[in-house]
Prior knowledge:
The structure holds two protein chains of two kinds.
Chain A (H helix, E strand, L loop, with lengths): L1 H5 L8 H42 L8 H4 L13 H8 L1 H34 L4 H8 L2 H4 L2 H12 L4 H8 L11 H25 L3 H9 L4 H12 L1 H16 L3 H6 L7 H11 L3 H32 L1
Chain B lengths: L1 H39 L13 H5 L4 H5 L11 H8 L14 E9 L1 H18 L3 E9 L4 H14 L7 E4 L1 H8 L19 H5 L6 E13 L10 H10 L13 H11 L8 H6 L10 H10 L4 H4 L5 H10 L4 E5 H9 L7 E4 L7 E8 L6 H11 L2 H11 L2 E2 L8 H6 L13 H16 L8
Parallel strand pairs in B: 1-2, 1-3
Antiparallel strand pairs in B: 3-7, 4-5, 4-6, 4-7, 4-8
Helix pairs in contact in B: 5-17, 12-19
Amino acid sequence: MGVGDARPSWSKATPRPRVAGxxxxxxxxxxxxxxxxxxVLLALIVYPAVEAALFSLGQVPTDNVxxxxxxxxxxxxxxxxxxxxQLFASSFFLDDLSITFFVTVLSVVLVLVISYILxxxxxxxxxPLVAVVRSLYLIPLFVPVVIASYALITFYVDHGIVQxxxxxxxxxxxxxxxxxxxxxIGEVWTSIPFAVLLLGSGLDGLPQEMVEAxxxxxxGFFGVLWxxxxxxxxxxxxxxxxxxxxxxxxxxxVPYLIGPNAPQMLGVAMQAYFSSYQQPQPAVAMxxxxxxxxxxxxxxxxxxxxxxxxxL
Amino acid sequence: xxxxxxxxxxxxxTFAAIGVGTATLIAACxxxxxxxxxxxxxxxxxxxxxTKxxxxxxxxxxxxxxxxxxxxxxxxxxxxxxxAAATVAPAATAAKASGPVxxxxxxxxxxxxxxxxxxxxxxxxxxxxxxxxxxxxxxEHGAGDQTTFDRLAAAKQAGKPSGVDLWETGNYLxxxxxxxxxxxxxxxxxPNLAKVSPTxxxxxxxxxxxxxxxxxxxxxxxxxxxxxPQTLDxxxxxxxxxxxxxxxNPPDQGGSGQAFVTRVLMMGMPDSDLNLFQTGxxxxxxxxxxxxxxxLKDLAPSIYNKGFYPKGNVPVLQTxxxxxxxxxxxxxxxxxxxxxxxxxxxxxxxxxISPPFSGGGAFVGVVAxxxxxxxxxxxxxxxxTPDPQTIIxxxxxxxxxxxxxxxxxxxxAKFAAVAKDYSFGFSAKFDTDLNQQWYEKVxxxxxxxxP
Lengths: 312, 451
């Protein structure tokens, strides 16, 4: 700040080369500053990821004991998609994949709807209950996932609290725990606070005058919601969708504890292939598939944030 | 002036950044190199993860009450003692001459096993042999076992003592024995080894002393199950006749379920192949499992909660304790300690069927480069005497390492229903295939309808 302002007026005579030079220097400097984390990233993440990708294509590294001692390895001199072909030929894996999609998509939709309602209530609601809700929806953020999963099991499982109440009322009950529905409940529960926070911060940025003006012009609640709130809050909603998608897609604890024995979500299946079946190659291939799916969602996120940068 | 100092600052910070970057790079590289070295060094294929769930998991539940009071000072190994002695290696036998001796004991297992040693067995030995200090290094659930293995391998390459004298662990003893890192033991070094069941000793080819053990047994609620099943067929018949009252854990999530699955799979196998399944690997032989898989799949609708298999030894016990089921395979030591803590109703009885479920010993090996072998042998010989064996039985409800007939009559009476021989599970490689096929062929069949 100080240097530029303090520059005397004669320096305007030779502005161009100076600016270009300092730009270059600053760019180089920035690069150097960013180098250490980049190098670490390269050594600890990119290199192993490339090795893993090649491994899933039939290139078994001899110096990596965790890979080379696996069972039923597919070793090939050239790159091959055999590992993937075998995976997709197995109905066992396709079941895993379909439960992963089912849980992920359903969780994303439910998280978006429930969080939107909560965020709207916290933003526009009046009365003492708003403060209560504002602190209640944050609770899952502070409960470790393992504890939450066990709590859900105790709550919903047979002979649990829900069944006790329903039986008392003379209603039947089929516990969702150890089924797909149970995983969705767990995922939604753990994803809500972050989603509400994101959506809420978006809603807080809405100009109050615009909402009031629309009200004055005769728009009802749903009119305001549909014409003003949702269009202006698209970017946070997209971020919520991508984050929830990536989070649920790769989740382990909730599906491991609450899910059925089989089929398993990809996170659980990967672990089973890697350690229980000692087959690192299909496990790595599944990781690659998960990575590609998450990359698509990541692309949406990048697009959304770029858009929000323009909007700001 | 201010511009000069700014540039100066920028230059300096650039150098600093480069410096940090290089340092990180070097650190990353050298870290990689140093871990790479020992892993390539030892035996060709250390099958890392597949350490069988057997005796270590068996210990899990009893941990709860004792954990808090974990005083167990786990002193750092005292390599100085060992290496100092190493310089006088030829005179190692001098250790016999009652000077103070430190034996470094590496232990992997659950916290109840740590407490068993640190609070009971080692203090008891201190009274017998005040000159011998047992310095214990504990690795919970074997988390540090690969490191210890690498250390032994590296020490052998370097021709120096590793500083580890005794090691209690699982499959690493077998691997280490084959790589010449672990001593093969006979009853000349440890006379009491003669009183140990030779089949148990053979489980790790004599590369360790099986000082305690446990096996999977059948637990049933005697109020509901009035006639105790004696054979596997009895069990299967009862389960089908009483749907929803039996379960076991997936074979990869605990030894009790694994033992049940193994026993069922053995139905279709000729006895002549048993040895191959227990010690070797041949994928083509796995077709002999088909009869067993069909049986288990037939059983699925009769399993608790329309085919739910709790994920672990302890969850199965808890389901039994809640009264949701009335029969299950459980670990003998876990079942006994659950009964002692009233976590299982007193009507629950434990019993070994015939032919028996599998079980296993917990082994302590003597490291080949140890400079305190005589002290180590003497110590292990003492562990195989009735007094410490009784301590083991009383503290963790384990089986004694000694053959049953060498144990006091009251101990024999306490274990009468379960104190029979146990069988052995499959080899690590067969087990991994077993795990996958169980998920594919038993659990992976059409899912119960989601509500």
